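worker-03 picked up job from queue 'complexes'. Input manifest follows; two sequence lines, order preserved.
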Amino acid sequence: KQEVTQIPAALSVPEGENLVLNCSFTDSAIYNLQWFRQDPGKGLTSLLLIQSSQREQTSGRLNASLDKSSGRSTLYIAASQPGDSATYLCATYNTNAGKSTFGDGTTLTVKP
Amino acid sequence: SQTIHQWPATLVQPVGSPLSLECTVEGTSNPNLYWYRQAAGRGLQLLFYSVGIGQISSEVPQNLSASRPQDRQFILSSKKLLLSDSGFYLCAWSPGGRYGYTFGSGTRLTVV
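worker-03 finished. Artifact:
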């Protein structure tokens, strides 16, 4: 059974700092890994989707990497802004399971 | 483009009352559909998923049921709500897991 872990559960940084969020998973037989953002009381917004054959994906100030062999993914946020404050979740899609497994998320606070 | 609609946004129901939450997807056909529940400060718990009309897979034995009466419609129901059914309910769709998930805006259910 796939387990997805995100550490730390919470992170606070000053505005302008570059930061990395971590996601680890136990079963490397994944089809893809997806990063989401969730604002309080809202649904999940997809940020980046990395297929198992890819090493990284970029969108604006966000860069997500994937290392299947080590069971790790990172989400890099450059030049953080207060508007980046949210909970970030990662999810792996395992072909065998036919569904995604989500981490519990990292709550990011960017202080002005 | 594809869109997902979920309603209502908030709901306060007394214990023992019935529940019906609806989710519809536009702009695609034969989507995979999912119902998740998110308890306060917790991760996502998969409740039900469906790969086609009338096909429902249940992940967690509970007081809830799901139905898919039409290709792009997914309904979460309960005959009698419990206090423990309170939470944030999210609907999601995918054209197939390898393409990632798209979430609705969620329903905040409070059972009193």
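worker-03 released lock.
The mean pLDDT of chain A is 94.
The two ends of chain A are 41 Å apart (CA to CA).
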